[in-house]
Design a protein that fits this description.
mainly alpha
Amino acid sequence: MQSALETFLSGMALAYMLTFARIGTAAMIMPGIGDSFVPERIRLHLSLGLSLVMFPIVWQYLPDPAPAGVSLMALVAMEVIIGLMIGTVARIFMTALDTAGMAISMQSGLANAQVFNPSLAQQGSIIGAFLSVTGVVLLFSLNMHHLLIMGVVDSYNKFPMGELPDTGGMAEVIAMSVAAAFSIGMQLAAPFLVMTLLMYVGMGVLSRLMPQVQVFLLVIPLQILLSVMLLGIVMLTLFYHWAGWFEESFVFFISMGQ
């Protein structure tokens, strides 16, 4: 009886440890939960709490017999890699807003206005930082962080515990995510590209009609004003389009291979 109890407890501890290896790694870089402005202790507590809730589900995916020694270390390493990939894909989807913000800043004449972007933990454009932080707020407001947790849970069907992940497939998923994030970022900045193109055409005509006037220098304040006004007009549509794309893309990522 005691031996059965010890086996049961050791199985629980192993399931919890392996669950934490995948969830903890993903939570460290997931948008919102893994941002630099979130204290490490908060991230650790969230990871431990999610692991506590999920490890009874993960128990059924444990390899039988349970690994030990070097095999256990290799299993933990594979769980960390899978969690790293899930968190990286979610983070790449969030960078679409920073890409759009950088493109908007370049078209509005604010490319040199660099501020600290807390979502990326590095310097970035002022509009990119605004869009990134607002995107994180929108992520939690729309309960889309549930998709991130769902992705970790569903990953046990896609990447079974104990099997070596397909590194080629993982690299392809990352590449597709980067391409999709860049594409949607440029789509979000499309109104500003059109506005700047029309302004430069008009300034080119004026510079030919009045060569003695520095048209490109005088029009910079107008360019900034029009860009800020356009951002206020399209902001709702911009975030609505990005939120829908984020949800569809992550659901597609979760359902891949099923």
